[in-house]
Amino acid sequence: MISTGKSAEQRSAARTMPRLERNISAILKRREEEERGRHAHDRLAQAITTFAGSMTFVCLHVLVFGAWIAANLGLVPNVPVFDPTFAILAMIASVEAIFISTFVLISQNRMAEKDDERSDLNLQISLLAEQEATQLLTLLREIAGRLGVKVDGEEDIRELSKEVTPEEILNRLEDQKVRSGE
Length: 182
Description:
This protein has 182 residues and is an all-alpha fold. The protein has helices at 8-37, 40-52, 55-72, 87-147, 154-160, 166-180. It starts with 7 loop residues before the first helix and ends with a helix.
């Protein structure tokens, strides 16, 4: 036996690499296209949300609010107290919270849209895989029948080889929800 220096696992991985690379490239290309197609306000909302969720943002607020509080408690020499009741600080913090929460909601809406797209893609792939499996089971049943091969669980295989439509699944799920009172 001549050794090629590669294990069966390595040869198998080498065969799947072109498919894997093609799939990865397609995903990356799609993400790049989507990023180029984003509106400026979406990019701005994402940038603000990303910054607001960072430790830099937290540290900046600790410093600014800490200095504000220290100055207005009279702890900083030669700095006059300009907000003794902290009403201005509270108003600034409230307005900032309104805007940050709005930007977060915009980003979450965009993420929800992306999640819906991924869910649709996963559903399509699952439906295709189910259809392929159904066809394969039907073909294997026919081959076994022609060869006279006795198969255990014939009734299960016959049931699995029946085509199931997405509408049937959705209708049954809806019926179960109604019966369970959801």
